[in-house]
Design a protein that fits this description.
alpha+beta, three-stranded mixed beta sheet, 29% strand
Length: 113
């Protein structure tokens, strides 16, 4: 069970970062990348975004979340594989894998009016 308000502090930082860049400009959309292995729940993040952005120039902006899948690269056989669940395991059976995608947590772009 994840900490329930994990997303609140992350989303607060996101809103602060956007407001730093856009000031009083009206914002239409905020694009973020939240990897499936990042531990952040997109639905919770959307909810927090609405609450936090209320009363700021971000109020009413859409939060658009791209959710890249987890991808691993095997150190034994070298192949890349999509993680279907949270257990990093190569199709060859090796657990000696490196996670190369899916942990992203970043602001990618902001659309202003
Ligand atoms: Zn392998």
């Amino acid at each position: 069970m994840a900490k329930p308000m994990h997303e609140l502090s992350i989303t607060q930082s996101l809103v602060d970062a956007v407001l730093d860049r856009t000031g009083t400009l009206a914002v239409l959309g905020v694009h973020v990348r939240v990897g499936r292995l990042s531990g952040v729940l997109p639905d919770a993040m959307r909810f927090c975004f609405e609450v936090i952005s209320d009363g700021t120039p971000l109020a009413g902006a859409q939060l658009l979340i791209d959710e890249p899948q987890g991808v691993t690269r095997c150190r034994s056989c070298g192949q890349d594989a999509t993680m279907e669940d949270l257990i990093p395991l190569c199709p060859c059976g090796s657990a000696d894998v490196e996670i190369i995608s899916g942990r992203e947590l970043m602001l990618t772009s902001v659309e202003v009016a």
